[in-house]
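Notes from the 1:1 (GR / supervisor)

We went over the backlog. Supervisor wanted to see one worked example end to end before approving the batch request, so GR pasted a single chain during the call. The sequence is below; no edits were made to it. Supervisor asked that the structure be written out right there so they could see what the output format looks like.
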Amino acid sequence: MDRKIILQRIRHSRFMIVGAAVLVIIITLSLLAPVICQFDPEASSIAERLLPPEWLSKGMAGHILGTDELGRDVFTRLLYGARISIMIAIVVCCSAAVLGTALGLTAGYFGKKVDMVIMRAMEVIQAIPDIVLAICVLSLLGPSTLNLTLVLLIGRTPMFCRLARNNTLVYRNAEFVKASRSMGASRAHIIFTQILPNITTPLIVQLSQAFGSNIMIESSLSFLGLGIQQPQPSWGNMIAAGRKFLATDPWVCFAPGVALMLIVLAFNFLGDGLRDVLDPKRT
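Structure output shown during the call:
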């Protein structure tokens, strides 16, 4: 697709611009957390517990979003929690995209028994809701960042596998593939240089949308006590700890809740925008 057309579509895609802008702000703040924040995200101070937001009275020198029940700075924990959630999302989604695409290409191109074995395995995984699968596995293996990453990887892989497989079936018998096959091109050459480039657009859109759902699932598991464990900050465990103070000290729960809502919406907006921008059928 012509680069000028892509740039023109990006300029007219409000969803993509808004989503990208919000994500840039959140990711930049999280990366600069050691520079911006003056408090330790895990250090408690009972003398400063449940302080209200001080961003009007003290600015950056105070507790911008107040403190939690242990006197920990909410703003600091918010940014460090974003680093953890985003890092897990990147590792899980990118690994799932690579693994799922490889399996989907294999199943779609070779077909028959290979297709049956791979897709039946993916259907078994998809038959179990992600959150239920994660709860069962983490309950058995115990909550940890590694176990959380692995179980999310298992749950995210089938969607990329199915998408890659379905699109591979479309191009497997295309004229240009038949021509390459008749000229003696290897299977690897056909798969990676002719089929894969033609199926990347839907995979990119799926990847961008998977980030938001992955962060939501990670936060849900942390909320239930099966994800990131205290005192390590996570938006999910921050909401879980602050829910009992919702009526009296709402900032403890309100800040991570709003942040979670914004980043999930931003990824969804970005995915919708990418779908509109990269759609070759759109005039």
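Supervisor's comment: The mean pLDDT is 87.
Batch request approved.
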